[in-house]
Amino acid sequence: MRKLTYYIATSIDGFIGGPSGDADFFTPYAIGDFQAYMKAECPDALPTAARRALGVDDVPNRHFDTVIQGRASYDIALALGVTSPYAHLRQYVVSHSLEKSPDPDVELVRGDVAAAVRGLKQQDGLGIYLCGGANLAGQLTDEIDELVIKTYPVVLGSGMPMFAADFRISEFTLESVRSFDAGVHLTRYARKR
């Protein structure tokens, strides 16, 4: 069975974006050995334009072949005129307001999102990348098999949390921690079974 991995960038205080969802303040830290890690170990999680810019567009996917993201995350790409931000993956966008997909390579998900993800997990293939955002992660908390958290050395004070959900405890087991020269820490957790 495939895994759903919430692969997310966050501040030290647990915010994945500012109050308006902006996360450009993380970009200056994607340098040096951290950038080398992203290129070598997980280029699947990079948007297609970033893969091209870093010269890894032709690298085969290693971890993910599918991405699911919320409408707010997808809107960031749409604002840049990009209708297929992860062209190297099967793309799903959860939206109740879009009438039809702006791109034939992007499938809209409506209704029971958790059931849709459970169906995707039953299919053959690589893992499923949960790109964001907070509301979608909150809806899929029980379906997340793995957390990969890129913690950047900034404190925001407020903004978009990693999960927007009602209070409940979901336990995960620490798998690994890796540090990079720019002060970024990559922490990997597996759902406690």
UniProtKB/TrEMBL annotation:
Which superkingdom? Bacteria
- Pfam families membership: RibD_C
The record ties this protein, via InterPro entries, to: DHFR-like_dom_sf (IPR024072), RibDG_C (IPR002734), Riboflavin_Biosynth_HTPR (IPR050765)
Give all residue intervals belonging to the Bacterial bifunctional deaminase-reductase C-terminal domain: 2-186
Q: What is this protein called?
A: Dihydrofolate reductase family protein
Output the lineage of the source organism: Bacteria, Bacillati, Actinomycetota, Actinomycetes, Kitasatosporales
